[in-house]
Amino acid sequence: MKKVLGVAAAALISVAGLAAPASAADHVKHIHTGDAFGDVTGWSGEGTFTEEGDRVHICDTDADGRGVAVYVYKGTPATGVQLYWMHVGGNGNCVTKSAADGGVYNLPETRVGFKFCRYWKEADGYHAGECKDYDFLNDNS
After folding, report:
1. Residue range 66-94, pLDDT digits in tens
2. What are the Cα distances from residue 128, in Å, to 35, 43, 77?
3. Chain mean position to CA 117
4. Of 60, 77, 76, 67, which Cα lies nearest the Cα of 129?
5. What pTM value is reported for the model?
6. CA 108 to CA 20: how far, in whole Å?
7. What does the alpha-carbon distance between residue 18 and residue 15 come to, in Å, rounded to a whole number?
8. Which residue of 20, 58, 112, 115 has the smallest Cβ count within 10 Å?
9. Exposed/middle/buried for 13, CB within 10 Å: 0-12, 13-18, 19+?
10. 117 beta partners
11. What 3-state DSSP class applies to 25?
């Protein structure tokens, strides 16, 4: 009986030792704009949201004469409250905001939303279009 219990305990310890903790990659969410034109197939911008540090990073990935913008929400883009927005233009250019920037960039530990769009200026002002909506639980766990 002692031998059976010893083997069972050893098996339990080895299984517990093999269980991998959640990796940082599990808390990095990839986002992109809607349709693209120009020299990229699929979208005009790419970005990431990293829960640890509330890091929002976006890049313009299309040489189409337009930039990209992300609108950040507490809640979903459809029903939430907009906290901030940022934009960048020029193929290959990127911009990042994070909790280290303070204020609105320190996102709440709840559901957060992102509307990621192409962004451009015309005679009547700035416009955003071809957007894609995302929302994630910002739980840092």
Report:
1. 999 999 999 999 999 999 999 999 999 99
2. 12, 14, 14
3. 14
4. 67
5. 0.79
6. 27
7. 5
8. 20
9. exposed
10. 69
11. helix
